[in-house]
Design brief:
VC0802-like, Alpha-Beta Plaits, 2 domains, 7-stranded antiparallel beta sheet
Length: about 140
Amino acid sequence: MNNLIQLSVFIENRKGKLRGVTNVLASAGIDIRALSIAETQDFGVLRLIVNNPDLAYDKLRENGLVVKKTNVLAVEVDDRPGGLDNVLKVLDENNINIEYMYAFVEKKSDKALLVMRFDDMNKALDILTKNNISVVESKKIYEL
């Protein structure tokens, strides 16, 4: 399976806490490729795709942050009206549940990339591949 690693960092929903995370990453020379924040009144979950997830994980933990590694897929989608709907149709028709997703645009392409977490990652990868939906290799994401 594609081994794209997402880091989930649990942070207090207070002034300066997000910058604390970005400062640790910047100081270590780590580049953020994509991010998403889900928040509650008191805490947030910062989901990150970075160019060096192992180093980022170590540096964040060294700085007292709670961080978790998760496998996700980066799915290439035509950056046009209906591009996302075409992918979701295939997943829906094959009873694949998406736990969450967020998007970013690839700089050198006319494609958008969706970072997706599924309840059954292997089945999702199989269905996407069988339906000619491109799943981007982690190496390509890390080198963007």
